[in-house]
Amino acid sequence: MLTLGIETSCDETGLSLVDNGQVIAETLASQIEIHSVFGGVVPELASREHLKVLPQLFEILLERSKCSPKDIEVIAVTRGPGLLASLLIGLGFAKGLALSLGKNLIGIDHLLAHLLVTDLEQNLEFPCLGLLVSGGHTHLYLIKSFFEFKLLGKTLDDAIGEAFDKVAKMLNLPYPGGVFIDKLAREGKVDKKMFPRPYIDNTNLDFSFSGIKTAVANYLAMHPELIFPRAEENAILLANQEVKDMCASLVYALVESLKIKIRRALKLAKVKGLVVAGGVACNSVLRQELRILCEENNLKCWIPSPKLCTDNGIMIAYLGEIFAKAGFKHDLSLDAIPRGRTIPWDFKKRT
Ligand code: KG4
Ligand code: ZN
């Protein structure tokens, strides 16, 4: 069932065509260069850029796939959570295509798409735990099937990716900083006592990462020599051992706090494995540590290749096709759901 996937929830415009679970073609345009000047995503610029590049990317996608618009059977689009104006650009484009081609429209939850696209590379087994770690979210789910899931816990403040990016900003590393912290941490030595493991002295499955930011700010106030004098592209080459050790200790504290909550969740739910996705799932320590945790618990561990961890159109097309095959669709009243609001289960059933 040839399915077009459209992703515009944040700072990447992604399009893809998927057929029978196979990627036929994809295109992706990143806005990192535009936003890096401001040290973070500027929503107004993001939506304007999506509007500008979407038609061009669609042309490129058709050319690469050798498909014509009328071959497309389903149009899947990210409906949220994300930046409202950016989501609306994707939705408008999708609705226009669905209307003009007379094809089915389906709105997809960006967070579940991140997790479930893992099935494209590795066969997921249910029930499983799903940990979504991105720039905007840190969510822990119990996933019973492609269509049945329960949110067990989430961050109460910053997402883990935000913690990475904000610390990177304090150090004057380029935006988005997660990948720079990862590279520096790989060459550092962990001091387990340098930073607290955030929000573990409780019995719940929620996360909180804002405290660790304060701990890093306090540490840097005492060690200002660790801050790069200006936004530094060559940070990896210029960094001294102390900065690397600080990054390694930070990553340790962040990943440990995830591990503690995952172990807690495993006591509550009998599952076959853990799936981890979202941009922060590119982090090398996180990947290694969560694989070890799964091995220790005789569980499978599914983490997509880094290219599929960050935002892309493939995940929307992949999940869109699965939902469409199961008979789900939306009509043209489909609305966008901004960050912070729950995505409603308001599918219509195809008759
Ligand atoms: O999923 P994603 O592409 O966009 C959102 O939906 O948020 O995630 C982006 C986040 C950013 O915070 C970025 O710094 C982080 O993923 N990230 C990493 C790494 N690569 C990307 N964080 C830690 N280590 C990495 N290697
Ligand atoms: Zn994302």
Question: How would you describe the overall organization of this protein?
Answer:
- With 351 residues, the protein is α/β, with parallel strands linked by helices.
- The chain is 42% helix and 19% strand.
- It has twelve helices and twelve strands.
- A five-stranded mixed beta sheet has the order 3-2-1-4-5, sandwiched between helices.
- A hairpin with a 2-residue loop joins strand 7 (138-145) and strand 8.
- Helix 4 (110-116) crosses helix 12 (314-325) and helix 6 (178-186) packs across helix 9.
- It is globular and about 65 Å long.
- 5'-O-[(R)-(carboxyoxy)(hydroxy)phosphoryl]adenosine binds at residues 10, 134-136, 161, 164-165, 176-179, 182, 278-280, 282-283, 310-311.
Features:
42% helix, binds 5'-O-[(R)-(carboxyoxy)(hydroxy)phosphoryl]adenosine, five-stranded mixed sheet, globular, binds zinc ion, alpha/beta, 351 residues
Described by the principal axes of the CA atoms, the overall outline is globular
Mean pLDDT: 95
- Radius of gyration over C-alpha positions, nearest whole angstrom: 20 Å
| Relative helix content | 40-55%
From the helix content, strand content and strand pairing, which structural class follows? alpha/beta
Sequence of secondary-structure elements: EEEHHEHEHEEEHHHHHEHEHHEE
Small molecules bound: 5'-O-[(R)-(carboxyoxy)(hydroxy)phosphoryl]adenosine, zinc ion
| Low-pLDDT runs | none
Major beta sheet, strand line-up: 3-2-1-4-5
Distance between the first and last residues' Cα: 17 Å
How many beta-strand runs?
12
- Tally of contiguous helical segments: 12
Beta-strand share of residues: 15-25%
- Largest pleated sheet: 5 strands, mixed
